[in-house]
Each structure stands twice: as C-alpha cells, then as structure tokens.
C-alpha cells in the first residue's frame, strides 16, 4: 500500500490510517494520550512521507516515553507502514500494490545460471551484502528471500510465509568464517580488530533476522489483517510480562526495568513523606493569623506531626514455582531500603530462615537470590511449599521481628500442597503489625483453585494480585 493508497483505503484516508496505528500502539500497552495523537497527526505535515525512517523517528518522538517501548513500537510501525508503502521511482505501483526496487538494483538479481541451486546463489549474494553492510540493501534482500524461500504449506492459522524456512535455507550463521576473512586484513586475527569484526558481524546478522521477520509479518498481515497479526507479533512490554512466565530474555529486561522503577517509587515515597509532615489544622493560630487579612484565613497553620519511617519485614516463598517473582520483588525491596528504618528479609519453602545477610548494601540481587538457594536453611523436609510450617517457624524463631511499627509483606502464590495453611499464626502476625499485605503472582481467578489457599488467606490479610512489574509499581506506591 502506498501513502496515497492509504488515503483511499482507510476511513478518513491518511488520518484514518494514522488513527489505526495509534490505537494499535495504545492497545500494545504504550500509553498514548489525546495530545500525543494530535502531535502525531502534526508530524505527518512536517516530515517527508516518502522517507520511511524519517516518519518512523518522527512518530516515535511524540508517541513514546521510554526507550523500552521502542521494540514494540517498531514492530507495529513495520505492520502499519511497511516497506511496500514506498512508491516506485517511476511513480507507479508494482504488481499487487508492492513497491519494487530500482531497475538494476543488485539485491534483486541473483547471480548464476538458471540451473544452479537457488539457496546457494542467495547465500553468495547474502555474503556480499553482509560484507558491504548496506542496511537498505539488506532489507531488500530479506524481502526477496522471503518471497523465494519462505513460502510453505499454509498453517492451520492461515500463515503461508515462515522466517524459519528462510533462515534454514540461507544458514547465515555458517558464513561467519568467510565474513571474518573478508573484514580482516592479514595479521589482524586474535586482537582488538577481530573482536570489532565479530561484533559487526553479530549486528548485521541480527539486522538480517529482524528484516526477515518483519517481512514475514508484513505478508502475513496482508493475508490475515494487521490487527490480528499485531496481537500475536507484539511482545508484552517489560513491565507487563508475567513474573511466572518470564523467559531468560524477559528476565534480563525485567532487571533493567526494576532499577528505574525503584528510583521513581523512591521519589514518590519521599514526596509523600514531605507532604505528610503537616498534621491537623491549628484553628487558633489560623484565626489569629487571619486578623491581619480582615478575618480571611489566607494562610492556614497546622500542628506539626512526626513522620516516622516504618520497618519492613518481607516473608518470601522461594520455591521453584515462584522463584522469578521472588527475585524481582526482593530486588525492589533492596532498592527501597533507605525509606525504612529497618528491612529484614525472610525466605521459606517448608521452613523459614532469615536472609537479610545476603542483601547488604551494594550486593547483587541475582547473586543474593542464588546464594539463598545454596546457603539458606529454607528446606527442612521435602522441598515443597509448606506455608503452615513456615509461618509457625517464623513466629517461633523471629517473634520480635513484627511489631506496631512493622509493615509485613508476604510474597507467594499461597499454594500449600494440601497441607495446613497456618491461618491462626498468620492472623496473629497481621494483628501485631502496623500493616500487612500479601502479593500473589497468580491471576485472581485462580485463587482457591486446586491446592491454592489464597482465598482463605485473603480473609485475614490484604491479598493483592501482583503478576507483573506494572502491578508491583501500583502496589508499592500505596506502602
């Protein structure tokens, strides 16, 4: 679809096309307000609509607030403003509305005779393009490779093009040795030059894979519709990834997201504490001061109130089923240490041990969580969660940890493996504390199902659903 075609195909023309894109960005979890949508429409009047990258960066400048949102945005942009949106140099659209490259564009001409194996010829061309490092030529090659090598039998979902077929045929990872030979001069092996060359190769191979996946999404969107593809192609933002379903790549992104999250929450807590220093209205001082303004209380006076920093006790299930959730909650707890007079952390599986010693200032939380599994006394019987026994051990060994100034935070899914839940002990801990909350990483609809005692625990303690970093941020602002 060209830009001019968008004006005719979408309700409202180009404005309707932009509105659909903005809605998709918002549906992906990126907050976009009305003013930002208006600014995006203004961008269309000041950028060159035929310069796709200029349009990409212009819309990103007004629609995004954080760098972490950029990968999601780029996937949606490629769906709504694909490479085929470019008109041909002659001003006419190619077959089926797709843009074609320049006449004689080397990326569109596969060398060799007609009888040669297509994949071999494409690999030869790919090797040259990776050596040249032209990103635009690489993107055009990716489009051609998907057309020639990516088509397969339609899947049950209706998809006809697959990136794995292209990557299997081209096997770009097997070209590394040839690329190194082409990028390095004699005598540069083993030094800094080789490290730079390897990094360059990794970046170009990553760009190739991204271009192939983008082209497959574009063709799938043409078959099934952009909206349907967008729901499956867009990964959740880091703060929306479920702790219990996070994969290795998600965990690394979540670690990067928790640190700035802690800083933002720290600022909010400090501001709230400063605003809370004024107590009840001092009526006598206010009336006395109003005599100077004709009886109008222009300035109000309040009695001072001593604002104390509460103590925080964290009681955390570190069994395998909730290990990821425990990791990020303890990371945030450590970052908020300065806002509490004392922070004590306790971990349990089927018995309880204090693990505060692993979270000294400056300690790496990932290493601390790993040490808990190796060194802490959290398994006393069979290594399966036993909340009742864990609560009893905590109340017996660390009874003084919870008092009138203590905020108690319990972390876990509440799945007891059909053992005694220890409700009376937990109720006594809640009664003795200043405030008590339980963060549960499972969806609320699953509470009480199977061996979950979350509903019963919710009768004696404030049970809060906390499946991702966004919900964790919402909760901590209430502490």
TrEMBL record:
InterPro entries: UCP010256 (IPR011195), Uncharacterised_CoxE (IPR008912), vWFA_dom_sf (IPR036465). It holds the Pfam family VWA_CoxE. Residues 93-103 have a biased composition (Acidic residues). Signal peptide: none annotated. It comes from the Bacteria. Residues 86-114 are annotated as: Disordered. PANTHER family: BLL5662 PROTEIN-RELATED, BLR6139 PROTEIN. This is VWA domain containing CoxE-like protein.
């Amino acid at each position: 679809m060209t830009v001019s075609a968008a004006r005719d195909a979408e309700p409202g023309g180009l404005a309707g096309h932009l509105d659909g894109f903005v809605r998709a960005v918002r549906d992906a979890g990126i907050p976009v307000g009305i003013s930002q949508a208006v600014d995006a429409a203004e961008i269309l009047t000041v950028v060159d609509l035929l310069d796709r990258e200029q349009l990409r960066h212009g819309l990103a400048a007004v629609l995004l607030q954080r760098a972490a949102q950029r990968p999601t945005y780029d996937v949606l942009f490629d769906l709504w403003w694909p490479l085929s949106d470019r008109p041909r140099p002659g001003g006419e659209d190619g077959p089926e509305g797709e843009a074609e490259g320049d006449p004689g564009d080397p990326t569109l001409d596969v060398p060799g005779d007609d009888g040669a194996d297509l994949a071999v010829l494409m690999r030869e061309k790919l090797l040259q393009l990776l050596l040249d490092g032209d990103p635009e030529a690489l993107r055009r090659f990716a489009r051609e490779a998907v057309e020639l090598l990516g088509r397969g039998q339609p899947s049950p979902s209706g998809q006809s093009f697959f990136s794995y077929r292209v990557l299997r045929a081209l096997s770009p990872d097997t070209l590394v040795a040839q690329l190194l030979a082409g990028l390095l001069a004699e005598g540069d092996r083993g030094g800094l030059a080789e490290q730079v060359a390897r990094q360059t190769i990794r970046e170009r191979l990553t760009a190739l894979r991204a271009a192939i996946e983008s082209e497959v999404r574009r063709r799938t969107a043409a078959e099934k519709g952009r909206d349907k593809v967008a729901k499956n192609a867009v990964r959740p933002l880091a703060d929306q990834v479920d702790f219990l379903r996070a994969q290795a790549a998600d965990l690394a992104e979540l670690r990067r997201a928790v640190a700035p999250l802690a800083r933002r929450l720290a600022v909010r807590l400090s501001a709230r504490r400063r605003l809370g220093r004024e107590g009840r209205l001092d009526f006598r001082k206010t009336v006395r001061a109003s005599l100077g303004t004709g009886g109008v209380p222009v300035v109000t006076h309040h009695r001072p109130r001593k604002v104390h920093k509460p103590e925080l006790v964290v009681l955390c299930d570190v069994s395998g089923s909730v290990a990821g959730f425990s990791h990020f909650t303890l990371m945030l707890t450590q970052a908020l240490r300065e806002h509490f007079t004392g922070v004590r952390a306790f971990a349990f599986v089927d018995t309880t041990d204090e693990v505060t010693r692993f979270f000294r200032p400056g300690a790496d939380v990932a290493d601390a969580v790993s040490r808990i599994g190796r060194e802490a006394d959290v398994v006393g019987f069979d290594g399966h969660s036993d909340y009742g026994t864990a609560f009893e051990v905590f109340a017996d060994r660390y009874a003084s940890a919870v008092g009138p100034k203590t905020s108690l935070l319990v972390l876990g899914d509440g799945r007891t493996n059909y053992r005694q839940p220890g409700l009376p002990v937990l109720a006594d801990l809640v009664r003795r504390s200043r405030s008590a909350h339980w963060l549960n990483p499972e969806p609320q609809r699953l509470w009480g199902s199977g061996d979950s005692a979350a509903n019963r625990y919710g009768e004696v303690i404030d049970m809060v659903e906390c499946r991702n970093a966004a919900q964790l941020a919402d909760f901590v602002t209430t502490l």
